[in-house]
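Fold it.
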Amino acid sequence: MTAQTDTPGPVTAVYKVSGMSCGHCEGSVSSELSELPGVSSVKAVASTGEVTVVSEAALDEAAVRAAVDEAGFELVGPA
């Protein structure tokens, strides 16, 4: 989990997502997470189940969970 700081700048968080098995899965998760406010980049890797999200500020885990659920996968939690 990432903590907010007083220093402005991007926040990078890595999440563990179960169920991804291919490039299409990576794309689905990336697409949903990219729609969250403040997200500047998303990189999903099916082979490790890790999703790296760069955003303007720390993201609400409930919002991340909802986006991953919408993509059809399960957020395990922070990696």
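The helical segments are 23-34, 61-71.
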